[in-house]
Structure formats: structure tokens, C-alpha cells
Amino acid sequence: MASIEVIIRDDDGNIISQQPATQVNLKNANLDSIEADVEQWRKETLPKIESELLQQAQTDFTTGEKTS
Which value, to the nearest 10 degrees, does the dihedral of the CA atoms of residues 13, 17, 18, 19 take? Predict the structure, then answer.
């Protein structure tokens, strides 16, 4: 079984966001079913990643304002 996993790192290689891997069943799958699985994963996961990135940016901005 294949899996989809996204790990986002900053410029220094530190992990900013990591979502759990999602399993994709490729046995007896066709392109349409794989595409549907990936699209479902995208709809569920990308908003979570976007939220984490925005929170990190807000924290970085707030920290930067405090040190200025």
C-alpha cells in the first residue's frame, strides 16, 4: 500500500509542519480512483497545513515585534 505524506521544513531544515501519512490502496486501482483518493486527501489536509503555516508566521511576526 502506498502512502501520501507532506513534511514542510524551513530554510534551516527544521520541520514546520508534518501531517500523518495517508494510505492509498493501489491494488487493483485505476488512475481515476487514485486521482479521487489524492483529491480527497488534498481537501482534508491542505487547510490544516495552511492553518499551521499561518500560525507559525503569526508567531514569528509577534516574536519579531517584541524584539524590535
Answer: -160
